[in-house]
Amino acid sequence: MHKVTFKFENSEDIIVFAAFGESLLEVARKTNVAIDAPCSGNASCGKCRVKLVGGELESKKTRHITDEDYADGWRLACVSAINADVEVLVPDIASAYRSRMKVADLSSPEELKIFSDAKEQILEAGIELKNTLEILNISMDQPNLDDTMPDNERFTRAIKALTGIERIRVPYSVLKKLPDVLRESGFRVKIIVRKIETDIFVYDVFPETEEVIVGGIAIDIGTTTVSAILINMLDGSILAKGSSGNGQIRYGADVINRIIESAKPGGKDRLQKAVIDET
Ligand code: FES
Predict the structure, then answer these.
(1) Ligand 1 mean position to 233 CA, how many Å?
(2) Are 117 and 124 in contact (CB under 8 A)?
(3) Given this structure, which CATH class describes domain 2-96?
(4) Burial of 129 (0-12, 13-18, 19+ CB in 10 A)
(5) Distance (Å, whole) CA 84 – CA 105
(6) N or C: which terminal CB in the chain sees fewer CB atoms within 10 Å?
């Protein structure tokens, strides 16, 4: 194993051990060192430049590095293999994707106007913005020695009595918290349901006094940017919006290079981790 030291202009070194012959770009990716690699290691974009500042690195010379730069220590990480202990400087420009990862607030007046205009046009076109989610208040008799009905039965009976709907579905996540919530609230609760004519699904239960927001989230996963919007499902108002660079960018700037990456061993997991965990 060889010691690989990644140096940065504005942060502390990252040290890792790598096997002989491993690609420097792969080592960087495994270690979460951000090196821009729009062509995903195909040696065609010339963006994965790092500077050799100590030790040795087996690097092919490519058209992207001039003789002068090569003599100065510049190498492409994707065509460099570990053959000894090495120290490389990762320039800030190579970490450009980090700046693209910043979460942006999209709540400028212009942004909000685009949203409200679109909403108006939808309504003008006769499309109704609605859904089947509701908040219902339910109150039940408290159990006593003469009334020992189990909590779940008491709960579903109360929902039936209020709505007239026979089929009530209560998932385990709600059943699990039900006894505590019922006792904490004196058997007066607020439930979030999806209600259709023949069926009610209970998403959650809270004490009657608790402030509850029913949020819906829409996420647009773009090649470059991931945007998300959180809305109040009961009145359609925007609760929060944000966007961030897609962390998958270091595995290729476009869809073709991401497809190439996904076909490599472990590629799908790396792409998934980049978009779910990092972004
Ligand atoms: S040239 Fe190395 S990632 Fe593109």
Answers:
(1) 44
(2) no
(3) alpha beta
(4) exposed
(5) 45
(6) N
Q: Ligand 1 pocket, 46 CB below 6 A? A: yes
Highest CATH level, class, for 133-207: alpha beta
Ligand 1 pocket mutation pick from 45, 69, 75 by most atoms within 8 angstroms of CB? 45
Please say whether the beta carbons of 21 and 83 come within 8 A: yes
For the chain, give every domain's residue range.
2-96, 109-128+214-245, 133-207
Q: Quick one: average pLDDT of 69-74?
A: 91
pLDDT by residue (tens digit) across 95-152?
A: 555 544 555 565 678 877 888 898 899 999 999 888 889 999 999 999 999 999 999 9
Kindly report, residue by residue over 9-22, the tens digit of the pLDDT: 877 899 999 999 99
Q: What is the pLDDT of residues 139-196, one digit of tens each?
A: 999 999 999 999 999 999 999 999 999 999 999 999 999 999 999 999 999 999 999 8
- What six digits make up the tokens of 166? 């026979």
Residue nearest atom 1 in ligand 1 by C-alpha distance: 43
Residue 198: pLDDT over 50: yes
Identity at 239, one-letter amino acid code: L
Spatial CB neighbours of 163, under 8 Å, sequence gap ≥ 6: 136, 195, 200
Beta-carbon count within 10 A of 47 CB: 18
40 CA: nearest ligand 1 atom: 3
Q: How far apart are CA 174 and CA 200, in angstroms?
A: 13
Neighbour-count burial of 48, counting CB atoms closer than 10 A to its CB (0-12 exposed, 13-18 middle, 19+ buried): buried
The CA R_g of the chain, rounded to the nearest whole Å, is 28
> In the predicted model, what is the mean pLDDT of residues 65-81?
92
Best CA proximity match to 4, nearest among 34, 36, 33, 37? 33
Work out the pLDDT band at 254, boundaries 50, 70, 90: confident
